[in-house]
Design a protein that fits this description.
Length: 941
């Protein structure tokens, strides 16, 4: 038999013989294929970037063989689909929460391959199906019943015993691993009953794999004997009292309800909604170019070669796309009736990829109302769907005054199936915002690609990743600004007041540009060795953060108001003290007046003028002056700190409490730092000082809802631990492995002081050096921090490198890498670009080299945190816990949980966070997490 697609039998669907059925349907159990492929082959990673691909390769081989066998078979199918399990829970979990609850999570190296297997299916030209809320077996059952009842034949490609209940006169099963097709006789041999009674047997004996309880102590043989004797399950239960065996009789009586529940759990649902009409599953040949591109991208050389032998040449790199047409904003459609919307949804579904965007009446995703949705199905083919526009202050939105929109509920109902369809890839730009907005309307968009994050992975640190900047950079197109479409009138302050023709140009362009960016950037990921970084560290994050932002966190407004009042009184006292020290009144909020007082009138040394000619009075300048023993700069610093805390937090947090939820909803930014660290804004919750009394009081104002607690789970010294691993520092690694006090150990190594009985000041100095080294601290900086002479600080640093020579070696290697490449890598492969290393300025280059030393450590810590955050929601759900992840602040995660769950959540958070790197990376030092629960954030921390 040929092993290439070289004959013509798959070029068109094979017509049935005159005596054969109109439909001969093959249904492949895709989930079964995946796990068989995974366990049948040794682990395999793609050479270019380390992405796990063993299951994908095995799946492709299995699907390839099936297609070849099908075309050679006398009863070749007319219709074909691969069916997958959807990741969400199903109706069975609602019937019985323990259903499949004890199943372990899939191996981590298999998780990123699930989406790739679906992509492989589509590349082979085969329908790829799944249905939210249902298992693959239910979808198979529904298609099977429809085809069979319509006179067709069905072959279920699987060895799963749960599907044997479907076998019948025109339904058989095919085990491709054993190359055996079996029917009614094989089912009787396995279960002791015919297919129509398999459900009754499974209800009695249960299923340990799926956690179906059944009747304790009754196995398949006993169950089959009972069904054969009494005819069916209902009769067995009705006549259980007649059974002679005492134990069996009592079991059936005592567990009758459990047995009936088990029957519901094992019965496949033939009424499952079909993801696609059966008519859409007609067999079609794979497109050799599409398949070749996929196989080449996956680096499956053997399969690519076999495809080439059939006459199709797979490109070694993504083909240069034909330049899309110029962007013409006048060509976009405004969708204002339901039939037109359904047509756009159908086109998006047929294409399999759609770019989308939302327009809202607020910049906050947690607070906003949906004004409209835009879609793009191909470059230049985009539309805007207005849903919430309105007139304001007499503004006529339309020339004729006719504001026609689809009712919001109808539009959501039409869009939801496509936006949630696992077979349709949705593409967004900063999609986190759109996910949060749509989730408020019951839409869980999936799967998602994000052009902002693709750009971020490719070129973090080289430029920004907003849509306008990317459009100008890659498409040579400047998108319309909101100001252009809104005009200057008061009524146009919100997008809901923008006229529909202008709104269409603006909104549909966003979707069009997003799709073009996706086509431009996505293919670079595998060829630059960054696909694994994107798939495992970035792509899952928008959904995680959207849920966190929507959840928000509760604050105590009264406590914050009291703090604001307290800070105001202290600021008045500090102002009076400062003016006494200056000898005259002046405005403490005016940098110019401060400079005049400090340098012009008091004559303090060290003053520097800015480019505008005024004295510089930033925090570094005031810190230097205070270190010289000047009292006024310290008072000014204290006043500024209180002013900042009052304006940024105690006042702003009260104003930020959302009227509907009563909680504060921050916004997390995914692509704002070069190292992968998250930032937060509106309000910024990541910069609340943790080491000052005032900052701790603010954190105490973050509280749990009644009956709940806040839980803080914090990595302990993660960057020092990563330094020990990345730099391969034996002394540090040994200390962390032995659970020693790292700062005391460092002090002992440096100063020859025993750990036991060590003076606290000695340990403090070692701690400052430990953390300072990570950030390339200088002798000048260390002397300021410790309040010691600069030559003494320099001696400390020299001693440190003498005791820990591996750290110097690591630093030298980082400097060399950034000089040679312009970037460094984290342990997980994230690329941190540091373009300043090419600067003509020696100061800039020195700064870049310090950044290169820190970036692999800080970036790896950020990657570990992302991996933990991505796993956490599923881990909580699988553990049956209702806790919610609320905040991420540096090395800390904050949760809210019922009081009764506190201990369990603490344990789970520690377990997930400490093992977040596995199995991708096994660190040579343990990661440690401390988790505590309390009524407020400060007490938990």
């Amino acid at each position: 038999m040929s092993d290439t697609f070289d004959d013509a039998r798959l070029e068109t669907p094979r017509a049935p013989t005159p005596a054969g059925p109109a439909v001969r349907l093959y249904l492949v159990d895709g989930s079964g294929f995946i796990f068989r492929a995974y366990h049948a082959l040794p682990p395999l990673t793609r050479k270019s970037d380390g992405l796990p691909v063993g299951a994908v390769q095995g799946f492709c081989n299995m699907l390839w063989k099936l297609l070849l066998d099908m075309k050679a078979a006398p009863d070749a199918p007319t219709h074909l689909a691969v069916v997958f399990d959807h990741s969400e829970s199903t109706f069975r979990n609602k019937l019985y929460p323990a259903y499949k609850a004890h199943r372990p999570p899939p191996p981590e190296d298999l998780v990123p391959q699930f989406a790739l297997v679906r992509e492989a299916t589509r590349a082979f030209g085969v329908a790829c199906l799944e249905q939210p809320g249902y298992e693959a077996d239910d979808v198979i059952a529904a298609y099977c019943c429809q085809a069979r009842d319509g006179g067709g034949e069905v072959v279920i490609v699987s060895s799963d015993k749960d599907l044997m209940q479907l076998v019948g006169e025109r339904v058989s099963m095919l085990d491709t691993m054993k190359n055996v097709r079996f029917g009614r006789a094989a089912v009787i041999e396995k279960f002791g009953v015919p297919p129509e009674k398999v459900i009754d047997v499974q209800a009695l004996c249960g299923d340990a794999v799926d956690n179906v309880p059944g009747a304790p102590g009754i196995g398949i043989k006993t169950a089959a004997a009972l069904i054969n004797e009494y005819g069916d399950l209902d009769t067995v239960l009705a006549r259980a009292g007649e059974i002679k065996q005492d134990k069996r009789r009592q079991t059936l009586i005592d567990f009758a309800d459990q047995i009936r529940l088990s029957r519901q759990l094992v019965t496949l649902d033939c009424d499952t909604p079909l993801p696609e009409p059966l008519s859409e599953l007609a067999v079609a040949p794979p497109d050799p170019v599409v398949l070749g591109q996929f196989l080449e991208t996956m680096e499956f050389r053997s399969l690519t070669r076999r495809l080439g032998e059939a006459g199709a040449t797979a490109p070694a790199a993504p083909k240069e796309a034909t330049p899309p047409s110029a962007i013409n904003v006048e060509s976009y459609a405004c969708v204002r009736d339901l039939p037109s919307l359904l047509d756009w949804v159908a086109r998006a579904t047929a294409r399999g990829v759609v770019a989308f965007d939302t327009e809202t009446d607020s910049l906050s995703s947690a607070n906003s109302g949906l004004v409209g949705v835009s879609l793009a199905v191909s470059p230049g083919e985009a539309c805007y769907i207005p849903l919430g526009h309105e007139a304001s202050d007499g503004l006529a939105l339309e020339a004729a005054g006719d504001l026609v929109q689809i009712p919001l509920a109808e539009a959501i109902a039409a869009l939801k199936p496509m936006l949630e369809d696992p077979a349709v890839l949705k593409v967004g730009q900063n999609a986190k915002y759109d996910l949060a907005v749509l989730s408020r309307y019951g839409v869980r968009v999936s799967p998602i690609d994000d052009t902002m994050l693709i750009s971020y992975v490719l070129e973090a640190g080289l430029h920004g990743h907003g849509m306008d900047e990317l459009s100008a950079l890659w498409l040579d197109h400047q998108p319309i600004s909101f100001k252009e479409v809104a005009g200057a009138g008061k009524a146009q302050k919100s997008f809901k007041h923008v006229a529909l023709d202008a709104a269409t140009r603006y909104a549909a362009e966003d979707a069009d540009v997003t799709l073009r960016l996706y086509q431009n950037l996505r293919g670079r990921l595998p060829h630059e060795g960054l696909l694994t970084v994107y798939e495992t560290l970035e792509r899952p994050m928008p959904a995680v953060l959207a849920d966190m932002e929507c959840a928000g966190v509760r604050v105590d407004p009264d406590r914050l108001r009291r703090l604001s009042h307290e800070f105001s009184l202290r600021m008045v006292d500090l102002e009076a003290e400062a003016q006494t020290l200056a000898g005259r009144p002046f405005n403490l909020g005016s940098p110019k007046q401060i400079g005049d007082v400090l340098f012009g009138e008091m004559g303090l040394a060290g003053g520097k003028r800015t480019a505008t000619g005024v004295w510089s009075t930033d925090a570094a300048v005031l810190d230097d002056l205070a270190a010289q023993g000047n009292a006024l700069p310290r008072v000014l610093l204290d006043w500024r700190q209180l002013s900042k805390l009052k304006g940024t937090y105690t006042d702003a947090l009260v104003a930020a409490v959302h009227g509907r939820t009563g909680r504060v909803h921050t916004s997390f930014a995914l692509a704002s730092t070069t190292t992968g660290r998250l930032s937060s804004s509106d309000p910024n919750l990541q910069n609340i000082p943790v080491r000052t009394e005032e900052g701790r009081k603010i954190r105490a104002a973050f509280v749990a809802e009644p009956g709940n607690v806040l839980i803080s789970a914090d990595y302990s010294q993660i960057e020092l631990r990563l330094l020990a691993h990345i730099g391969d520092i034996p002394q540090l690694k040994r200390a962390f492995q032995d659970g020693l006090d790292i700062h005391a150990m460092t002090a002992s190594e440096m100063f020859g002081v025993p750990v036991e009985g060590m003076p606290s000041e000695t340990r403090r100095r070692a701690k400052a050096i430990n953390f300072g080294i990570i950030y390339g601290i200088s002798a000048f900086g260390l002397s300021n921090q410790l309040g010691i002479p600069q030559d003494e600080a320099a001696a400390y640093i020299r001693t440190y490198f003498e005791r820990f020579p591996g750290i110097r070696a690591y630093m030298d290697a980082a400097r060399a890498e950034v000089r040679a490449k312009g970037f460094v890598h984290t342990v997980f492969g994230r690329r941190v670009n540091i373009p300043m290393v090419r600067s003509k300025s020696a100061g800039d280059r020195a700064f870049a080299e310090r950044a290169a030393i820190n970036a692999p450590i800080q970036g790896t810590a950020a990657d570990v945190m992302r991996r933990a955050m991505i796993r956490m929601p599923g881990a909580l759900r699988d553990a049956g816990l209702s806790a919610t992840m609320l905040l991420q602040v540096h090395d800390e995660l904050v949760f809210e949980a019922p009081e009764a769950e506190a201990d369990a959540v603490c344990r789970l958070a520690c377990e997930v966070m400490e093992n977040a790197a596995l199995p991708a990376v096994s660190f040579s030092v343990p990661l440690k997490v401390e988790a505590r629960a309390a009524a407020n954030w400060e007490a938990a921390h």
